Amino acid sequence: MSVSVSHPGPQRRHWRQRLLELINLRPEEQERTWLMFAAYTSTSMGILWLEVSSAALFLGQYGAAKLPWIYMFSALVGLGLSLVYSWLQRLLPLRQALVAMALLMAMPILLFRWGLTQPELVAITVFLIRLWIEAIYGLNELNLSLTANQLFNIREVKRAFPIISSGIQIADIISGFSIYLLLTLFGLQNVMLLAFGAMVIGALLLYYLSHSYAHAFPDSPKHQPEAMDSHTGKSPLQGALGQYILLLGAFFVLAQILLFSTEFQFLNQLELSLGVNEIATFLGIFSGLVGLIELLTQWFSASRLIERQGVFTAALVLPLVIISLGLLTLVASLPQLLGAAALFLGVVLLKFLDEWLRYTLVATIRPVLFQPIPSQVRSTVQSLVAGIAEPISMGATGLVILLVIGLANQLGLQGDLAQAQLFLLGTVVAALVWFGIMALLRSRYLNLLVQGAERGLARFSDADLRAMKQNLVEALAKPQSEAQQHYCIDLLCQVAPREVGEVLAPRLMEFSPALQQRSLEAMLLYPNPNFSNPVKALLHSPDQPPAVFALALRYLWQVKEDHPVEELKPYLQPQVDVVVRGTTAALMLRWGSRQQRVEAMASLRKMLTHEQEPERVMGCRALADANYMESLSIYIDTLLQDPSLRVRRATLMAIAATQYARYYPALLKALHYPSTRLAASQALSSLGDEALPMLVSLGLDPYKPDSLRYQAWQVVGEIGSLPALEMLIHNLVSAWGNSRRQILAVLLKIYQQTGLRRSRLIDDALDQILGRSGLEAILVTELNFLGQLLAAKVDLNPRLVAGIEADLMQSALASMETDTLDRVFQLLRFMAPGGTIQAAQTSFSGSSARWARGLEILDNSLDSPSKATLLILLDRRPLQEKLNQLTSMPLGFRYRPMAPRDRLRHLLDLRPYLSDWGLACCFHLARVNHWSLTPDHTLALLQHPTGFVREAVLAYLAMASPRVLSEILPLMEKDADPLVASQIAQLAAVYNQKS
Fold first, then answer.
1. What confidence tens digit (pLDDT) does each residue in 261-270 have?
2. In Å, how far from its chain's centre is CA 553?
């Protein structure tokens, strides 16, 4: 008995899991989804019972010609109800307002039932029933959308809403196939009571749902319908968001216009072709069949189609169908062809397709379109759109229908066929406009998602930079502290470096000496002879600081002022300040005669060998400024060993400035040390393409520290020439791990900070060397590796492999997963707008709502065959489920469960891709579990450049193959890593004792 009882539980769980996978739903979403589904189904069933039972009565009493009046009066009722809804939201918390509105929709049914029992009130009651039905349809949808957007995030809505909104299809099927039987058995009055009961049950379910998930709803009424944006200080209904809301309103208005237009034409054709009893029967069967097909679509197709093709691709299906079928019906209904029969069949088919696609694809994306709107105003906007825009569209449709009928009568188009063709043509035109609005919505939708994700990040347009420049100029003209003026000059150099001269030169005499020095340094980057006079004035100013005087001299000679070199000779005297003396010597070496250069070299020789540090520093700087080394090179070795850091840095810059190739190795060596790293980087960067071979060799050397290799790649990026970019891109393909991430970081840094010209240079280089297919190939490699890491996390999970080493292995796998995702996002910035990808990446840290926003941004911004795979890898779902889905993707990755030992071996087969720590963890895990590894795995990694990897391999060999280890130890006695050398000594001592 115990055996028979133990199986059903797992079997039921398995069955439920399979069902959830079949309908594309997650376990954590199912309770909310089914409760909403039940509430919506119950309410919709009540509305549809009421509608189907009264439709034939209305057509018999008034005919389809009175529908436009229904639409106009329903618009007034809908507007009134929307005002009541807004009042309820201000009076009650949202969850209570939702339930109150659900009950309010049901209450008038009792009044309608009484009215149908009074002969004198039957006509008005039938009219009011139809009026009420048209008005509450939108409110029912609004209640549904508001509740869904509170309970689900943007990705969950895409999966759950097709199931929830399929409630109307269930209601269609039940009401369609049962209405005739119910009317026969119970009569219209009792069917209306059933409708009332079903709507009350829906309200009670909504009450239970809203209180079970009270945390998802705001606790207070919405007193402020428009919050202020904390970043802009403006109402969120302005700017880009305001444009989006207007387009959203237009989207729903046109959707309703097409709905009512199609419904009017459908009912009009039924009235012309069928009797009252036939209409009731036809409507019941039609509703049932459409509901059945919609249900199958919603449960098994809609969510997958929207997830894979995107929201707007799915949304465009309906207008394309209306346009195509409408035009085809117009052509086929010409008198000389099929006439009225073709029109009847075309309109019925159009109604069928409209209902099918409207209540599946369009109904599913409805709440998704509101997700980019900030949560604090989302429910207000939904109330405005559904409560005001849609009723207005209903009234506008009725008014337009009456106007079209009047126009057709004036034009002599009084036949039913001609008027029907005119209405159909108008429907096609409205569908074309709807299509265009969807295209506009798509771009705004993505922009708002990105803005929501990157809120708080500063980004400046050209207009912003011009405004900032003007503000800085105005700030410099106002009295303020020296520190503030210094800050303004620094900002001005960043905003408009080529225009600093025209701003700063007229103010030089007004500035303090410190500001004069900073201004001249900025002006020297782009010297202009037009500003020579203000600089000359500084030379004649009494008590001018030496630094300012020297900079002024250099500026005047840089702009090639016609000055005799003889005028500089007095400044070579020993009593002259060292800064001025060094600058003078550099100018004379560059522009003087042979004799003048000899005098300058004699002065520099004294400075380079002087006992005081400032003299040696200025001597080195003079060498760099003069671009002269020759006979003074004998002092370089001494200067590179100088105790003064400033001297050593100045010497490095002099080597680069004079392109003294003999000492290039000294520049690379200086990259090792933090104290000289910046100076070495600047020196190597100034060498340009000449430095590329040695920098690339350093960047690819696995025996060098990662920080040093990254520094080498950074210098290649700072050089930024076409050959430099080509080297970076070629090595991007062959590199892996940290090297690839470093190269990508350098390329992105160039791409983002150097302006339009070099950005285009990178684009051109990428296109020529890699192309889009090359980037896609790199991305596929990274995603495949991510799949391998997930497989390892599953097959080496703690239930199968336990212990400290197993925990360290899981940590290493998680770290490699993070690193790989970083590289993936770096790659994506070259395949989609960088700001968009950055916004998406920042969303993948935090709440599930932020995570879902990031997925939605990627889904709408990427155009890559690997997009579906990437979204699966990034989604929050169980690892096993991810692996199962990856196996069905065209990525090439196929998951096959392996025993832990086999999975570890498979990981080591991928050793070029694993991190150093990951490799070490593999061997430690194999050691403690006594798993055998192949000779290829061990012998290859004994030569690994990282010491702790070699240490892990030796520890493994001590367990697995002592004989092989005893043969290897003598070959590794002089290992460069102290820890490995100590380990080898200990192991050797153990073996010596045994022998």
1. 887 778 777 7
2. 52
* Res 873: pLDDT: 86
Encoded tokens for 497 = 């470096």
Nearest Cα to Cα of residue 425 among 333, 316, 318 = 333
Give the residue carrying structure tokens 């005028």: 567
Closest CA to 698 of 729, 664, 663, 721: 664
> How confident is the model over 543-562, as a mean pLDDT?
78
399 and 517 together in one domain: no
Q: Left (φ > 0), alpha (ψ -120 to 50) or beta: where does 627 sit? A: left
464 vs 128, more confident? 128
Q: Give yes or no for residue 9 having a pLDDT over 50.
A: no
pTM over 0.70, yes/no:
no
Total domains in the chain come to: 4
Q: Is pLDDT of 925 > 90?
A: yes
User: Residue 468, exposed/middle/buried by CB under 10 A (0-12, 13-18, 19+)?
Assistant: middle
Please tell me whether residues 63 and 192 are part of one structural domain. yes
Quick one: pLDDT band at residue 921, thresholds 50, 70, 90? Answer: very high
Residue 194 lies in a domain: yes
On whether both 182 and 328 belong to a single domain, the answer is: yes
Q: Are residues 244 and 349 in the same domain?
A: yes
Provide the 3-class DSSP secondary structure of residue 106.
helix
Tell me whether residue 414 is exposed, middle or buried, using C-beta atoms within 10 angstroms of its C-beta: 0 to 12, 13 to 18, 19 or more.
Answer: exposed
- Over residues 598-641, the pLDDT tens digits come to 887 788 788 888 888 888 888 888 777 766 666 677 778 888 88
Residues 893 and 910 in one domain: no
**599 touches 588 (CB < 8 A):** yes
Task: Decide if 868 is inside a domain.
Answer: yes
Residue 758 counted as domain residue: no
Q: Please list, in sequence order, all residues whose beta carbon lies within 8 angstroms of the beta carbon of residue 261, skipping any fewer than 6 positions away.
A: 397, 401, 423, 426, 427, 430
The answer to whether residues 872 and 882 touch, using CB atoms and an 8 Å cutoff, is yes
* Per-residue model confidence (pLDDT) at position 7: 36
Range of the domain at 947: 900-995
- CATH number of the domain that 54 lies in? 1.20.1250.20
* Same-domain pairing of 883 and 976: no
Residues of the chain with pLDDT > 70, as a percent, come to: 81
Report d(CA 925, CA 800) in Å as an integer. Answer: 13
Regarding whether 122 and 94 lie in a shared domain, the answer is yes
Query: What is the distance, to the nearest Å, from the Cα of residue 193 to the centroid of all Cα atoms in its chain?
Result: 51
**Dist CA 244 CA 416 (whole Å):** 40
